[in-house]
Amino acid sequence: MPCLNLSTNVSLEGVDTSSILSEASSTVAKLIGKPEAYVMIVLKGSVPMAFGGTEQPAAYGELVSIGGLNSDVNKKLSGAIANILESKLSVPKSRFYLKFYDTKGSNLGWNGSTF
């Protein structure tokens, strides 16, 4: 049940968000080793955001997963998602943070229950 929540100060107006969602979804599934059917991607644009004292393009993300995360996977995910944001939204890799949460199934609700 990986969920990647991305926020950026870049406007998404006129942007092909479907390609961002699709690429992020397949990347997360592949790198974490979970079925893509359970991957959720949330993308929010035009979020007021400053990084390093400026409002130049920047992004912040949080990825929650039940297992599948470790230092090697996290490093690969950070690089892959940074590449997507840089190529699709012109957010420099140096202006993106990604926080990882490895949680227990009992801490996440789905289908009217928990995992």
Automatic annotation (TrEMBL):
- GO MF annotations, alphabetized: phenylpyruvate tautomerase activity
Under the heading InterPro entries, the entry gives: Macrophage_inhib_fac, Tautomerase/MIF_sf
Q: Which Pfam families match?
A: MIF (PF01187)
Per the record, GO CC terms? extracellular space
Family from the record: Belongs to the MIF family.
Its protein name is: Macrophage migration inhibitory factor homolog isoform X2
**Gene symbol of the encoding locus:** LOC105174615
